[in-house]
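queue> pop job 88
queue> type: inverse folding (structure -> sequence)
queue> payload:
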């Protein structure tokens, strides 16, 4: 049940971010669900490897390089999911920030 709630919250966050940012395209609600699931899988399996590999850069930038990693994960998902488009790195960075804020807010409300 908790997994379904997390998928719903992440889907809503993707929809909100796509609505707010003109550089993000989500074709349908079904695409938003797929984006939420794929983004969760990418963050669970690929992101930790990148964090370990880039630890020196992350430490040198006091953790700010994690924003770059988040944007790269969004760009990867845009390549993997048809119907989800990101116009560039900066849009991916803003998308990841907005999704994080919305997920944090909705998770607090749902708890």
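queue> result:
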């Amino acid at each position: 049940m908790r997994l379904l709630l997390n998928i719903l919250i992440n889907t809503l966050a993707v929809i909100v971010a796509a609505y707010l940012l003109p550089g993000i395209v989500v074709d349908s609600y079904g695409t938003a669900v797929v984006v939420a699931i794929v983004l969760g899988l990418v963050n669970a399996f690929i992101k930790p490897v990148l964090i370990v590999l880039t630890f020196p850069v992350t430490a040198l930038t006091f953790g700010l390089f994690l924003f770059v990693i988040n944007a790269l994960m969004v760009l990867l998902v845009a390549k993997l999911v048809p119907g989800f488009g990101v116009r560039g790195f900066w849009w991916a960075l803003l998308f990841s920030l907005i999704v994080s804020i919305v997920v944090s807010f909705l998770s607090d409300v749902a708890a």
